[in-house]
Amino acid sequence: MAAILKTAILLMSFGFACVAGLDFSKTGYDPKDLESEGTLKALYDSWATKHGRLHESPGAKETRYSIFKDNLEYIHEHNKKARDYVLGLNQFADLTHDEFKSQYAGTKLNRRREERRPFTYADVTLVPDSIDWRSLGAVSEVKNQGSCGGCWAFSTTGAIEGINQIVTGELVSLSEQELIDCDTESEQGCNGGIMDDAFDYVADNGGLHNESAYPYQEVQGTCMRDSLDGPVVTIHSAADVTRKNELNLQKAVANQPVSVAIEAGGKPFQFYSGGVFTGDCGTELDHGVLAVGYGTDAGTDYWIVKNSWGPEWGESGFIRLERNIDAKEGKCGITLGASYPVKTGPNPSPRPPSPPAPRPDDSGVCCHDQQHCCPYDKPICDLDTNRCLASTRDRFGVAMLEQTPATWRSVKPYQKQFSTDSTLDEKESRSYA
Ligand SMILES: *[C@@H]1O[C@H](CO)[C@@H](O)[C@H](O)[C@H]1NC(C)=O
Predict the structure, then answer these.
(1) Atom number in ligand 1 closest to CA 229
(2) How many CB atoms are closer than 10 A to CB 158?
(3) What is the CA(211)–ligand 1 centre distance, in A?
(4) Does the pLDDT at position 253 exceed 50?
(5) What pLDDT does 354 receive?
(6) Rounded distance, CA 304 to CA 341, Å?
(7) Bridge-partner residues for 300, per DSSP?
(8) How far is the CA of 292 from the centre of ligand 1 (A)?
(9) Is 302 helix (H, G, I), strand (E, B) or coil?
(10) 350 Cα: distance to centroid of ligand 1 (angstroms)
């Protein structure tokens, strides 16, 4: 009975559903779908199929269907008012708002300490009216954090991917899992973290491996970084954008993608599907994301923000947040926790195969093959028998010593000591030091 009543109310509220210009690709429904219980059920079934929802029982399905209808009502009520932004039936359409909040925006993003590091773009005077780091090649594909509250790691990798592309010209997707598994001193893995601290970790620990070298697992695991020897992307340090000032944030974003913290747990956020978000949201920072540009649309200024909820959410995974609003905190608190990595040089070249070098305690001369050495008192190399002879008449000699590859730091001193006709020039030996 209650269900029938609810449907009746739902249908009544959809009764005036002559909404012009509702784009099915954004909303995920057609107002015609709201005409009867039958069409609603069909809509739910096709949504559930698309999203691979398997229900344990008919009761569970009924519960989800009912939440779905509540959400649809909310979404449609919003869309009827034809605001600047559209809501739609995305992957969160069968979650209650509390479920959504605790799973996707419930991460502990401790309010950041006051800025510790100077804002390096404070003196920038010329900023473009708009910029989009996506079209400039500095933004990787939209990723999906899934059920792990590791937004902070996605925000961190995004910012480093950006500055790395700007400095080196190469866009390399970086490993969130490495941060989640290894940066455990100041972060809480899938329960949250802070981008500033993660930048410090990367600066202090020799960089990050790429996404395919250390792929995302959606759960925290043991740190594997020491067993990887692939290329890394390094940064020098991090800086904080001086808070409560959208112009400061603009100066920073004009120069590189910037990690920002926002409140993303609001209901409109759950279903945001396109347009410039001008809706209500607070400033209780609960989500780490990445500002990748800004612009103006029909007189409304906006930030372009990359999220980590997959490409289905929002505008292919991005949201445009209203910019230059009255409150200093900015939309959803976007000016309150903005930070970015500083990169001053290229990435280290992958470690080359070590050149052969004599053992530290083998004082002697090296043979022409540069692989064997003999003691000073038996300096003649007989490479046919691998023996060192005192003179051409010496019939026995001693066994040659084979050089072992130098360790990382030892190349330079040993070379000085032993190489006679070394083929390694100064430049080469410097790069190993
Ligand atoms: C990622 O790292 C692997 C080694 O672990 C390497 O083979 C691959 O080339 C790297 N990819 C990029 C894009 O740098």
Answers:
(1) 5
(2) 30
(3) 8
(4) yes
(5) 56
(6) 19
(7) 297
(8) 24
(9) strand
(10) 10
Strand order in the sheet with 372-374: 365-366, 372-374, 401-402
This model's pTM is above 0.70: yes
Annotated active-site positions, please? 151, 287, 307
174 CA from centroid of ligand 1 (Å): 10
- Which of left, alpha, beta for 428 (phi over 0: left; psi -120 to 50: alpha)? alpha
Q: How far apart are CA 227 and CA 217, in angstroms?
A: 17
Whose alpha carbon is nearest atom 11 of ligand 1? 210
Q: Helix or strand or coil: residue 71?
A: helix
- Token pair belonging to 414: 């040993």
pLDDT at site 107: 66
Tell me the residue type at 354: S
DSSP per residue, 135-147: TTT------B-TT
The least confident of 5-14, 42-51, 306-315, 421-430 is 421-430
Residue 192 CA, ligand 1 centroid: distance in Å: 27
Nearest CA to ligand 1 atom 4: 230
Are 37 and 7 within 8 A, CB to CB? yes
DSSP string, 255-295: TS-EEEEE---SHHHHHEEEEEE-S-------EEEEEEEEE
Instruction: Give the residue, out of 140, 210, 232, with the most ligand 1 atoms within 8 A of its beta carbon, to mutate for a pocket test.
Output: 210
How far from the centroid of its chain's Cα atoms is residue 220's Cα? 16
What pLDDT, on a 0 to 100 scale, did the predictor assign at position 215?
A: 97
Overall average pLDDT of the 254-280 stretch: 95
- For ligand 1, what atom is nearest to the CA of residue 212? 1
Name all residues whose Cβ lies below 6 A of ligand 1.
172, 210, 212-213, 230-231
Residue 390 banded pLDDT, cuts 50, 70, 90:
confident
Closest ligand 1 atom number to CA of residue 210: 1
Residue 222 CB partners (closer than 8 Å, separation 6+): 181
Q: Cα(253)–Cα(303) distance, rounded to whole angstroms?
A: 9
